[in-house]
Amino acid sequence: MKHDHSKRFLTLFKKYPGLLFSSIFITACTFLMSYKSVPDVKSNSSDTLELHPFVEAGFPFISTAIDARKLGASFPDDNIAARTLALQLGNSAYACFDTDLLRWSVGWTGKFLPMVSMAQISYKDFFNKNNKVTTISGIPKIATGSYAGWYANKPVFEDAEYDLNRTKEITWAALPAEKGRWNGVYVLGNKAVLSYSVGTAQVLEIPGSSVFEGQPVFTRTFQIENASADLFLIAAEVRGAITSEEKGRFAYIKQGAGKDSVTAIGIVGKGNFKAKSGVAKNRFLTLQNPANAKSNEFTIAIWKGPSNKIAAFEKYCRKNSVTFPDVKKGGPLHWKETVLTKGKLSPDTAAYVTDILTLPLHNPWKRNVRIADIAFFKDGRAAAVTFEGDVWMVDGIDGKLENIKWKRFASGLHEPMSLDVVNDTVYVFGREGIVRLHDLNNDGEADFYENFSNVMLQSSESREWAADMVYAPDKSFYIAKGGAQSNGPGVTPQVAKGFRAGSKQNGTILKISPDGRQCEVIATGLRGPYLGIHPETGALTASDQQGNFVPSTPIYLIKKGDYYGVSPTVHRDDNPEIAPPLTWIPHSEDRSSISQAWITGNKMGPLNGNLIHFSFAHPGLFRVLIDSTADIIQGGVSFIAANYPAPTSKGTINPSDGQLYITGFNLWGSSSTGISALLRLRYTGQPSYMPSHFNAAKDGIVLGFDAELDNITATDPANFTVKRWNYERTEAYGSGHFKLDGTKGEETLPVLASYLSGDRKKIFLLVPDMKEVMQMEVSYDLVAKDGHKIKDRFWFTINKTANLKPEDYGFKNVDLLLLANRKEAVPEAPDASHAVSAERGKSLFQNMACAGCHSEGLKTDGMYGPPFQNLFKAERHFEDGSKAIADEKYIRESILSPSVKVVKGYSPEMPSFEGILTDPDIESIILYVKSLSGK
């Protein structure tokens, strides 16, 4: 922040006019003049970035999954939770509170959790994807199993059907709301106050810790209101007990041959207590709040240690007390400073350019800022969420971007990738569910993290992430959940190639009711879906991630009840048909897709009203064109050329300036090396030369453009190349290209004639043998009326051809009789430019998106495949334990059948290039690989 010294001088002079020439004033002036201004952040460099640890001192929690199934013989072995608050309690004591089951999953001492989840392990090591399931690294003291922590009327172990030796399947679900519901967490300085209901009772809880005679003890302070039944808390489960005892306000379970170890519960304070501690089944430490205690406030202490410290424990409980604070008033600030950044405007060299809103990476907390999503308030301010789990408020977004103000608002969220602002209130979708943030004391920081909705299932599989959330016109939310892919650490069984079981809602699109309490499955059979929604019509779209069962990148127009072809996430038993996509996109153009956004308003020129698709891997944006003339809707895409310094993931329109703001961060493999960016796609008013319209007809293709075209180039069929191919949907990763007869390869269709419409903006390509096909590509080399050269490609899908009259689109004198002499589709003929060479191999390496996964040097960070330098003739070791020499045969096999031999340490995430690359192409790539090895 900049400091205005003149204002400071004036303040001193007004307050102390007699000190103008005094030594005190001169000393003050000297101090102020020597105070260094902190300059605005104008740029960021990941190479010089210094970051503090992921877990920040002074903030009471982070949200995480926890696997506590292997704590030891005396602890429950079914203890795993996908949604917990990991609480820093002080005194080197910690606990994980399971927000689904309202229980303390585990309490421990020593070290906090290892930072091994996806967001944590990549926090400083930006491309590290080798995440694991979080386990505790300290000394476990207390734990409970995967059952509810609280019960109304009677505890679970009094149920005759309850099996103490349970091995039931994990449902990954929150409790039914009528039995218990997580309400959220209040943040009061370094304390977290938990809020939840049990039956009709409303419970506030302050987790804490203390020490007596060197012994760490866990405390839980409760404020219970509106209890209408007996409430039972299971505070700890202890297996292998020798004996147990209830003693007034205390209860004990002893272990060890000499009963030398004890786990104890005690009620803290003096006087008469309405609550009662106890032991059940010689295994559970419990607490009962009787029905007549409708309003109650008390503290319990839970301790594990040597039996000879029991007297000291009882003494500690009798002499201590805790006062419950007023949580509704909010807490003090954690992050007082505002960070100023200065953006970079792009010159108006094209119709659409990207301005850079510099991120606050050089901030007082040395906090990473990998921005995942952004949403706007009505006044043009924005809220942004990071993969680290932080929410920032952003102000000062104007035309010049010279004074962007960043203020931290919230933290501790679990790998959030979506955020929305509804009625000027922030909603964040992370793995904990949808959180609604409240600033109770209006100091610019969230004090209450409300659970708006946790009705969606959530496993702890790393790839079953909270992918996307959009707000619908009917005030509901749609969310997309990732499929439980195998390329994570894995906590559930393998169910198919590339997939684990996860929850029963992995790989789905769900609708969350306006009150957050109901969840409806809309579509299934997805691998890694991301969403887009029209804010006025409610039209819902989604992409999916190319991979196992997904042959290439699709964009879908989502309809309720649809199934999209990924069998491990079908979650149905009625053998549904696979719904076709709006369009497919080739691997070379978008191997990793993400969300969509609609351009609403009237300030984005030719893009107004259009659907925009985001490519993580390319990176960049695609304009989506929709052909609704056929019986089955279909679409196509063209790339929006601009500067994209980092992966592009999410975007939304700013209501103040009507421009599209774009977020994204790097991690999963992109052609970009940038770590993160916030961009503004700005319409400059310059001419646009992109495709703006298309139709797939039985007689050919209609392709419209934003600009008027030159008649000579537009009517020369030699300026167009039309290809088509199909994909095969199998369990393999991605797909090669196949002709319509099923053989490998692509077909080139002849363009018999080309016609220009009367308005000079549409072209009709007379193409024979037009049929339904998964992928078509039109390459064109044209000139606009103003002389601008237009050389590009357009990709689309034909779900159904339509009967179109050329004259209805402004075309005259179209000679349809030429189709009578039509030629059959022919394979693409190699030309001189396809001669075998290392140079040709390098070009293919770049154009086929190989460079996004393989380094031509020795780089491995951010790469899904092994590097190419020194690859040729090197010994390769594979995941199945075998090995081979990387000769010509091996390289060819790796290109055409990449899943046969997977290099050790890498995932099988490469599609086959069968039917895509010709023999000369492959020979050229081999020569290029040889050149990188000096052989």
Mean pLDDT: 91
- Provide a count of the helices: 8
Shape: elongated
Q: Which fold name is given in CATH as the topology of one domain?
A: Beta-galactosidase, Chain A, domain 5
- How far is it from the N-terminal to the C-terminal residue, by CA? 56 Å
Instruction: Indicate the CATH class of one domain.
Output: Mainly Beta
Major sheet = 12 strands, antiparallel
| Proportion of beta-strand residues | 35-45%
Radius of gyration: 31 Å
Describe the protein in words.
- By secondary structure, the protein is mostly beta strands.
- Among the domains are: 30 residues, no CATH class; 260 residues, Distorted Sandwich (Beta-galactosidase, Chain A, domain 5); 129 residues, Immunoglobulin-like; 94 residues, Cytochrome c-like domain (Cytochrome Bc1 Complex, Chain D, domain 2, Orthogonal Bundle).
- Strand 32 and strand 33 form a beta hairpin.
- It is elongated, with a radius of gyration of 31 Å.
- The N terminus is likely disordered.
